[in-house]
Specification:
This protein is α+β, with helices and mostly antiparallel strands. Among the domains are: about 40-160, OB fold (Dihydrolipoamide Acetyltransferase, E2P) (Beta Barrel), CATH 2.40.50; about 205-244. Helix content is about 25%, strand content about 20%. It has helices at about 30-35, 110-125, 160-170, 205-215, 220-225, 230-240; strands spanning about 40, 50-65, 85-90, 100-110, 135-140, 155-160. It has a six-stranded mixed sheet. It is elongated.
């Protein structure tokens, strides 16, 4: 059966030609990415549970998720493109003279991986990770397969927002240099009391970050090293604050 066309269109009774579908847009790397290097992926098929990486966020972008076999952009059944989150970390890792330490994290834009990143953002009090944040990613194992062809890989993320890190640094007392005093004649020297010792101010801590690291099994010493604060401060937070 043929579709009828309105007057002025195709010849009456001619079959309708299918409308060609537009070629989906593919995100290409920018010039900055090509010059600075996007970093190779830290996690791979050989990664074992417990593998972890910490670094400073260099860039965050949403890209098309590609089919593992064809390397072509993948789509859901309703035609919507599948996406993934690409985060580049600046680390101190180096595997050769041309390695600048950049490492990529690829997070699926759906399911357990997206929920893990969303939870980390909520704990850190941010909507998304941004350049300058400190981020830790840990591979914890495999989830339940269900009806999926493969069991999903599970990750835990910890985000330390740049402003939180700045608060810790700014909480440290700053020593103001004093100008050297000129020597006075013996007859004019007078007794001067010693200057009081500056009071050490306890650094401001993000209790939620401490609790998240504690839930991951990190010891007070490890948490203190990650946040750059005395271990006594971490122990005090653990004793005073109930678990979340």
């Amino acid at each position: 059966m043929f579709n009828q066309q309105p007057y002025g269109g195709q010849s009456y009774g001619a079959p309708t030609q299918p409308t060609p579908q537009a070629t989906p847009a593919v995100n290409l790397p920018g010039l900055d990415d090509l010059l600075s290097g996007s970093g190779k992926s830290f996690f791979n098929a050989d990664s074992q549970p417990g593998a972890s990486i910490t670094g400073t966020v260099k860039s965050v972008e949403v890209t098309a998720y590609r089919d593992f076999q064809t390397q072509q952009p993948a789509y859901w059944k309703d035609g919507k493109p599948m996406t993934q989150i690409h985060i580049v970390l600046d680390t101190n890792l180096q595997e050769g003279s041309d390695d600048d330490g950049s490492r990529s994290l690829w997070i699926k834009g759906w399911g357990v991986q997206l929920r893990a990143l969303t939870h980390a953002c909520q704990v850190a009090g941010v909507k998304t990770p941004v350049a300058g944040d400190t981020m830790t990613a840990t591979f914890t194992g495999l989830g339940e397969r269900g009806q999926a062809p493969q069991a999903p890989k599970l990750y835990e993320y910890v985000i330390q927002h740049e402003t939180a890190a700045a608060q810790v640094i700014n909480a440290q007392p700053q020593q103001t240099p004093q100008a050297p005093q000129q020597a006075q004649p013996v007859a004019q020297q007078q007794y001067q009391p010693a200057a009081p010792t500056p009071v050490q101010t306890a650094p401001q801590l993000d209790v939620n970050q401490v609790r998240q690291l504690e839930s991951m099994g990190k010891s007070p010493a490890e948490i203190a090293g990650f946040l750059g604060v005395p271990v006594e401060a971490i122990q005090q937070v653990m004793q005073e604050q109930p678990p979340f």
